[in-house]
């Protein structure tokens, strides 16, 4: 009997495309939700536009590519919350919605829209994975049951509500057990219990604050493996990539070093887990992309499914960049009903999208933390995410890739071996490994160098022998470089193959990096260019995707020096202060260059970006942003380089690249340096007659005190050389200055301390400009809500400025014009001023694109990067005359304090926000409300506020707002001093005890009972920096602020922002906020100019 | 829970100083590396495989007989080589045969300190034990691109770079099928019998195929490549023709036997070489691919249901889809290059696939194919 050739019911042709589709973005960058969602959202929009759909995007993240001109048809810079999205649906009437491209934010909003029946009400179809699947994967119990029904194993666990119940579970399951609280407030609730006694203690403690607790079998020490799975509506299914974590289970995958593909799974295990992944995704009926995480017992190959993310995730962005497979783009097509076999592989353009990439290289992702930017933060790494960015490195060996990755982090490492750590003894290093820290891998390498055995290190860390042995190879190479008398060609080559940088070799050989480079070039020890083609070379593919390696004899790609092209250095890893805005600048530079007939060569190493997408540049080097590697690339490409669009990393390379003979586009390296170098720049300002705050340098404590007295306090102090930059502080008195110098133990004899007069209560503003041959051709002045002393990255910015007079604005513009002319600026620049008595004092000027460029470009509707690129390419861009903005835009910072256990949520001279949003409105209050509501703060509903104001100044500046709050019918709760102050000023406030005070209604209840809308807890000015060293001063305020964060209560630690919020709430109800797209705001502008 | 620690079994150190080794290719090119296997010269057809795992399965796959195999994945040997386990005195449980069939190996890097809970020896130890030479330190991507552009070609691993090697004037390639096939009839019973018996024509069968047939419940009678399965005394319910090395046109006897099977209408499943032999038996033609399909990620689509599958493949020849005779149709097609991946009879339970439904190494998306006998 012939095989049944049943008419196939699966392959109906694709559904007719919905005409109008709504996409939800992820909002501001925050810890756990970063640039990867700009990548996924941007790809999704492109995929939908190709199918002829009209795309509506709700995303308040102004710094993203996805919210730029030419992508979505309508952009709403509004909170991704049910209230606002419902209104957008009501107005736009989309036929369908995509939920899986905007991270957890979009998913949560989508679930709420579904649960509240809003999607049904307006007849909006959810494309891709059904909402019920999403809900099921988010609910541990249902998730486990569904997978168990097809014989798949998840971590055994149980929700318990009593100690007895917990002990019973542990008895049945065996120790150790992992305990997690349902609501991880205060973060005190998770831990591992090895014995019954330990569990009893943990349960008692946690059940006192949390009504329910999850107990799970403890999988720590198991291997953590991930698969990225794709499925279409016809049930075709592939796994695009698998990945193995260097750090075993117990460390969040976002905090782990991750390698692709897996290294220690054999064929059977690899394909067994692959099959399970496909079985799971089929059972869950996911359409599109998902990520599945496993714990695998290293000695038995038992496995547990830890979780399934039914959406694009950080790992999918990584997998996409690691393999070249355009996951987000394909996922969007699948959501529209396309099938994998009918889609083309966008990389080869020849083969089908139904395939699994074969890698002929290894990829390593390393997280980047910035914990030292925060005060009092808990620095242990574990199951919660704290990293703010990541890098991805590619090599033909593990050693090469991990050494590259170490340098890409841009935090001072020359490679895996950190000379600073070699000062410790083996015992000390092993001790440091008892807790997981951001430096774990470096400490392991140092311990290996000190003779620790692989076995010992495996016992302590659980890291697989394979990884440890690889690190040992690097250590051996290091020691060989140290001990071998002659640096032969062979040794040089093998060292480069182990990933050592010229700088590190130079240091070990007591030579200069230039010597090593010269020697390498002379002996022909140079890297080759290899191409990533998703097929391991099996098929010819002209992809743009390149990396460099010393493990190869010939380049896949031979650059043509005659081609008209430019090299753009990207922003590197996201960190505090360097974020998606620089990616926006880099992408726009390449796009403009393309329009002007230049091919774009992008160099970047951050997988969470659009700049590293397959369709952004003509040539993409996924490479280190080190001087050495850029020299290597330049030597082959021989094209001019743009250093002014990727933030501080490329900016710092200007001078050394120029010295190497690299032609830079735009402002000269010498002039960039003149702006960077404090003395030179200061002298220039004097010469130009541009006011600047008084500043001086001190090389001893006596001198510092003398200068301090002379200048008058407060002063802003910072060391002229400091790696992490955490030592910048505002000093109020001599005593504080002494204390400061004690605490930081700075070597100011060698690196003088810079003292600057601190202009208190000055209005701060940002001047963003583009100049062409010294002439300013476009500019925008944004005013800060917070006065000087709060880092500009943490400030709320108003554009157009609100309080600045025409005179002041003119003065600012004049100063900028003078500087632009003197430094012969061509390209983007940013100048910051403090305004006192109508006089703008210039505090800084960077001859590169600033954080606010995407903001000013979108608000003014003049793409500053396009203008800058045209200027840099000598295309004589037409100057933009006076820009009129007939609406108000506000940019607000997004903080991630809730992810950083223990961190004091205050804003200081050092930046601490992780992202930003912007919103538009008819005035600054309306725009501000939309912006602030986009950062996770809700419109006040409970009508209750806690106020705790440090210092008289703080109290006075918030008094008016308290009156407002009272008028609005708010209940005010206040701590002792504040309550008395308010009483004296005729405002009634409930006095609550601080945590350390006894007797009164405890402030704790306000938090635990969720009585508050928000809290205003302002530190006294006197105590600004003393929290740095963990001193006890300000303990009460700190505890209150921290509790507010842990209980999810919005907190203001700055009275200016708090007052602004109160005033906005006073003027606008939630219903009053206008629902207009960006395009509509810009339209109103055109109308205005025409009338 | 106590997790016993596993570390690399004794560290096999590659002899120091490293011995240089060379790969000479027929086009005169020379690749230099270091010896990481047995110290003996070996010649063969230079091919590449893109699998990222599965070196134990690949090297023990008889279809690689006579070839110098390049792995495109740069790190080979990471999880070492396990202790061989036998499912049956003549069927391996964790290898595809009892020995390495490839003549030589070319890699970028070999793990000297592998790590795995089933690890028994290092990759290099295994090669030395099996007397197989190997070169590491080669730009395998460059080599792959060369083979892709110029097609597979003769090559030789040597330990001197001085001699200009030229492939011996092709004295008709050896018949690797005869070499790899079992010489005698062997019978295996399934632990979970389904009452059906299949004859398995062994053209160099991968033990994975035997394992899958046994798992499916068949009693398996493995017969030498030249034997007519219909000559088996027992009643057989179906015939499977296995994979195997080389040019299908060297297996004239098997083609004749398959013709008889087809004429009799006995349910038939051909795998890889078995697919090509069925094609020849029903009058279709085969040809040599420029550089073959060797990897674990070959996408194939069922042309009837449109369902797509990821498949494991290892073949240098293909069936010419334009030569498929009446009564048969193309069953699967390769989504990468459109080549034929399967044959299907309209009337009979006769079919074949170019890929390996058993995986080993690779995905087992198409394992259901082993359920090829439909009983009424």
Shape of chain B: globular
Helix content of chain A: 25-40%
- Order of strands side by side in the largest beta sheet of chain B? 14-16-15-17-18-24-23-21
End-to-end span of chain B in angstroms? Answer: 51 Å
Main β-sheet of chain A: number of strands, strand sense, barrel status?
7 strands, antiparallel
Give a count of the beta strands of chain B, DSSP E runs of length 2 or more.
24
What structural class do helix, strand and pairing data of chain B support? alpha/beta
Distance between the termini of chain A: 80 Å
Strand arrangement, major sheet of chain A: 14-13-10-11-12-15-16
Q: What is the CATH architecture term of the largest domain in chain B?
A: 3-Layer(aba) Sandwich
How much helix, percentage-wise, in residues of chain B?
A: 10-25%
The top level CATH class name of the largest domain in chain B = Alpha Beta
Strand composition percent of chain A: 15-25%
Count, helices of chain A: 36
The oligomerization state is heterodimer
Largest interface: A-B, 74 and 71 residues
